[in-house]
Amino acid sequence: MGFSFGFVTFSNEKAMRDAIEGMNNQYLDSRNITINEAQSCGSSGGGNGDLVNNLGTIARVAPRN
């Protein structure tokens, strides 16, 4: 099984930072999760550069063993 990803949008930067600090490297359903601030992919990808803004967070969940 591969990695799973999810995006969360916060209303303010403090809420985002608190979530990253509180949840990064924790276990969810026996799987380690990594929480990072999402970065805009810019306008060079042919899509909307504002799709992911600096108040977004990406969560990566490790595959089950």
UniProtKB/TrEMBL annotation:
Q: Which residues form the RRM domain?
A: 5-34
Pfam families in the cross-refs? RRM_1 (PF00076)
Write one Gene Ontology MF term. Answer: RNA binding
**Stated name of the protein:** Glycine-rich RNA-binding protein-like isoform X4
